[in-house]
Design a protein that fits this description.
Keywords: Signal. By secondary structure, the chain is of the alpha+beta class. Helices cover 33% and strands 23% of the residues.
């Protein structure tokens, strides 16, 4: 009887521990599964030099904006294969995850300063104006950031 009680107690403790696990430690678990009914974009700023005191992460659920940004990236010119100097680069980058109901997620990264490369689907595009055809301005608009906020004050430090 005592052995059976201990076994039941151990099973109950195990059940409680596994059923109470916190899924909030998985980044974006609620956003990535199940797939949304409409397009979604998750954007996170990477600031390796810690030039900003605030972290930036935003979820965009306006389907028109998400599709427009995705299509705009695909229409950017390829980044040149020749040597190019990009001296005005502070390292700030935006990690973007495009989620569409009908396809798997696509990831892109956008350099905020320097030559403003955009990497997506193993290709590198050029978003620096005039070649960027307004991509950076569109991204700033969708994120509700001005140029100084987007580039983490780099323009004002020159």
């Amino acid at each position: 009887m005592k052995h059976t009680s201990i076994t039941i107690l151990i099973c109950l403790v195990f059940y409680l521990l596994t059923s109470c696990s916190d899924s909030s430690t998985t980044p974006h678990a609620d956003m990535l599964s199940p797939k949304p009914e409409s397009a979604m974009l998750i954007v996170k700023r990477l600031d390796p030099l810690h030039q900003s005191d605030t972290e930036f992460e935003k979820s965009i659920q306006d389907e028109a904006d998400v599709k427009k940004l995705y299509e705009k990236i695909s229409s950017l010119p390829s980044f040149p294969q020749t040597f190019i100097s990009c001296p005005a680069d502070n390292g700030v980058e935006y990690e973007m995850t495009f989620i569409f109901p009908s396809q798997s997620a696509s990831k892109a990264s956008v350099r905020a300063t320097g030559c403003q490369q955009v990497m997506m689907n193993e290709k590198t595009y050029w978003a620096m104006e005039p070649k960027g055809n307004g991509f950076i301005a569109l991204l700033e608009h969708v994120l509700r950031l001005n140029n100084d906020q987007f580039s983490v004050g780099f323009a004002s430090q020159s």
